[in-house]
Amino acid sequence: MKRSRFLRVVYLAGLLALIFPSQKLLADNGYDAWLRYAPLKEERAKFAAFPSLLVVRSDSPLPQTSQKELIRGVRGMLGRELRVAKELPKESAIVLGTLEGVQSIAADLQPPKNLGADGYWLSNQRVNGHDCIIIAGATDRGILYGVFALLRKIAFAEDLSHLQDAQEPANPIRWVNDWDNLDGRIERGYGGRSIFFENDSVRADLTRASDYARLLASVGINGCIVNNVNANPRALAPDFLPQLARIADAFRPWGVRLGISVDLSSPKSLGGLDTFDPLDPRVQSWWKEKADEIYRVIPDFAGFLVKADSEGRPGPSSYGRTPADAANVVARALQPHAGIVMYRAFVYDHHLDWRNPKNDRARAAYDIFHPLDGKFDENVVIQIKHGPIDFQVREPASPLLGGLAKTNEAIELQVTQDYSGPRRHLCFLVPMWKETLDFDMRTDGHATPVKNIVSGQVFNRALGGFAGVANVGLEANWMGNPMAMANLYGFARLAWDPNLSAADIASEWTRLTFGNDPLVDRTIDTMLLSSWPTYENYTGPLGVQTLTDILGSHYGPGVESSERNGWGQWHRADHDGVGMDRTVATGTGYVGQYSPEVQKAFETLSATPDSLLLFFHHVPYTYRLKSGETVIQHIYDTHYQGAERVRDFVKEWESLRGLVGDDERYEFVLTRLKYQEGHAIVWRDAVCNWFLRVSGIPDAKGRVGHYPNRVEAESMQLTVYVPVEVEPAENASGGKAVACQSPARECAASFHFSGANGTYRLNVQYFDQNNGKAKFRIFVGGRQLDEWIADDTLPNTKLGADTSTRRQISGVTLHTGEEIRIEGIPDGGEVAALDYVEIEPQPK
Ligand code: GCW
What we know:
alpha/beta; six-stranded mixed sheet
């Protein structure tokens, strides 16, 4: 840029800053997530005595990263520029290094003894007569974690005058898994395309990969599997490994080690052998040579993640071998290099005969892996999904978590909201994870909560920990919704310390993301903490699981999609009752996989908690819960309560206008919450109507099937629009919609308002397919009220619950008899379909 132009730009920027308040210029697209380092305001005064000098001796990469990060954070939050020195000066300072390192600078320091790997010590000490802040790490990684911990304390405006905080992670393995395909798509990813891959190669620009590693490091994550568990053998190809090495280089300054998912058939499909039988010596040498090749280019390679014999993936069963045979062969190849194998316990038959009431997918992991306990090598870790099925909205803790006393374990949690309202529904999963982590397996009759088993503590295992399926993408806010980042933050914080409470994690995240205003903190925390039970309420309560379309997007309702097929996610609802009988006495025997004490909690109807009733038992709809309510009425009520609660989320968020730092995130989240408000109603109606039809038992409160404020599109006066059936019927109001099908260029639906004169809110329920951008216009008494384009990217091309959405038009004055007319202009495959218009008195 020429100098004169540069000056013009600077001048213009200055002028803009004068005209617009600074907040407007600080638009936030969510990229910085919880690392915003937003300037502290009046709280800055608390840091008047904060040192201006930073003493660092080590030139190695992590201390260097730590130094830069500290300078960056302090600059952002306190507006101070730290100076750096190698020797202790005659003024107060921050001293940063390993435990030995800081002692070599200040010999009198007494750091805590036996600080575990990756632990840190933050402390306020007098050194040479000056107040100093010590940031010491048990390892280089610990230094970095200490820096991030101190920066968090500054962001929370904590008093640092009595700083004394020694922490070490509860779990050695704190990894994320990203299900990125090498072509750039992400399986169950909702934040855009891969930050690592495009066109079967590693991206040229890995800025996002290194920024991701920074985010991860800030909350203690130390490993990342970068490709889909449904692995492409190309991940191990000779020309691909140097490309992977570039990602490892981007991660390394942040202490994050790279690992990859591997396809167990690679010796055959990639290596050209005629077998991948793990017990064939040629296969064994293939893995050894491959491991050596990897470590030549990635010396700190973390290891492999394996999905085998699962959902069509190749595995040892092809040769009559066990998961232990397979895991050990791969593990022995990695062992000389200190690499590990994470072998997933998500192994099951997806062609189960649904007619056999004894069949049960929930049994699979335990049935397969428990007999192999003790047969796995020391560098194998069995990675176990937290529940026995598949990241459902409510599952009991997987019995396998308590069933491996002589084997390393890690718990797999799903950060990406696959079954929990991908990117659009607020669903903070930490409270759900906490329930599993705190669940007491009563192994050998002792208190053995899951968190202490997976950490290795209960059975004295050297390895263990957490794996979180993150699936971040190229969109600016990483996960498609800034609120979804609370799950990534929470996952990592739990991996570090599973004893943290959900409330504390929520509050930490909120304050780092939106600032320290107590009203903002309280409001957002309340929303977060109630969001999972709310989602459960309007999707599938009582442990029946998420009644979503399990065969497709896992998004909208698909109550019957789980039934009469081999996938084994059955709820077995029929005319008489609902639920899976998993008892030992009369059911699938799944309950018998738990320790005797836990069995007692689930085997009988009277002992089983309502929240898991239908997971363990098949009961008639008239069965009375502990609350005294019948099952069917509970299903109706919770769906109404859930949808109602989302309405409150919108109001609660609206109360924060102007308080959450910037407008961009505020508006983004508001749009999402309003969408969720409408979609929760789609869920409510679909599930309630399905149960009404199947059970034949009406809602005692008269709501289900009666919608007095609605005018169905198919009953309006239609011009060119035609009524169409929606499949399944419960996924549209009245089972029908109206569509403007080609070759029509424009359609209209109209009716006359029959209510009293007044001010109303109009909810236009329409369908936004992802194969076009239809236009809508709405007129009242001939005057155009609103127009919009259906250009959202909902996950379906068809009319149904995935694409059903609403336009809310508030404050509309209506007169009795006035004509309301909606025009639809189709586009591409999108047919400008309408479901209904609901006219409700304008809410206060
Ligand atoms: O729930 C299923 C998902 C698959 C996923 C699988 C797994 C990666 O539908 O998309 O595949 O779980 O966890 O392996």
